[in-house]
């Protein structure tokens, strides 16, 4: 259970695992789409689904325990901005894999997680090597949402990092060390 001065090992572990995975997936996603590195897509989708499996308990933990309290006096506007940023980070971390899954499934590309087929490919019998969308509008919505959420998440991560560095180097409080488990 999280406390004012210390966070639970579960909170800390989920935070860093999800952060590392999401940053990696964002970088890989940008590289895949910009450089058209299609063989990375199955790995990207599989790890995205694993992130979703980790994020659900993290979100439930936050709903149950609330957000950790500030360690010192915090201006109300700064506290609200921190809560908004943390909430948006968590929402984006849930919505990114969901929107990617919607795009992949609805476009006919299926979802395969390390050999476990969650949604099958829908091959187009008239055009060998191509897929047939289940729902083109849903696929387009998923793709657009996934892209917009990705850029939003990058901005939020930069804001989050700036806040952590401000707390550590300017405010000299223990926010960063608390998230490191010290």
From TrEMBL:
Transmembrane regions listed in the UniProt entry: 12-31, 43-61, 81-102, 148-165
The keyword RNA-binding is assigned to this record: no
Cofactors, names only: heme b
Keyword Transport in annotation: yes
Membrane-topology descriptor: Multi-pass membrane protein
SUPFAM superfamilies named in the record: Transmembrane di-heme cytochromes
UniProt cross-references to Pfam families, sorted A to Z: Ni_hydr_CYTB
Chief location bin: membrane
Location(s) in or outside the cell: Cell membrane
Location of the Cytochrome b561 bacterial/Ni-hydrogenase domain: 7-181
Keyword tags: Cell membrane, Electron transport, Heme, Iron, Membrane, Metal-binding, Transmembrane, Transmembrane helix, Transport
InterPro entries recorded: Cyt_b561_bac/Ni-Hgenase, Cytochrome_b561_oxidase, Di-haem_cyt_TM
Assigned protein family: Belongs to the cytochrome b561 family.
Protein name as it appears in the record: Cytochrome b
Organism of origin: Roseateles aquae
Organism classification: Bacteria, Pseudomonadati, Pseudomonadota, Betaproteobacteria, Burkholderiales
């Amino acid at each position: 259970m999280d406390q004012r001065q210390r966070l639970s090992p579960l909170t800390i572990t989920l935070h860093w695992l999800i952060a590392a995975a999401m940053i990696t997936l964002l970088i890989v996603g940008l590289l895949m789409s910009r450089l058209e590195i299609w063989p990375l897509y199955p790995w990207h989708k599989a790890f995205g689904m694993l992130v979703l499996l980790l994020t659900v308990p993290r979100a439930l933990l936050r709903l149950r325990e609330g957000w950790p309290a500030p360690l010192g006096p915090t201006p109300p506007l700064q506290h609200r901005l921190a809560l908004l940023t943390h909430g948006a980070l968590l929402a984006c971390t849930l919505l990114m894999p969901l929107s990617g899954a919607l795009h992949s499934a609805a476009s006919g590309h299926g979802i395969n997680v390390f050999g476990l087929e969650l949604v099958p490919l829908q091959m187009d019998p008239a055009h060998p090597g191509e897929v047939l969308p289940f729902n083109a509008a849903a696929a387009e919505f998923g793709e657009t949402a996934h892209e917009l959420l990705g850029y939003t998440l990058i901005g939020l991560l930069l804001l989050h990092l700036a806040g952590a560095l401000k707390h550590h180097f300017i405010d000299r409080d223990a926010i960063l060390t608390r998230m490191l488990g010290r």
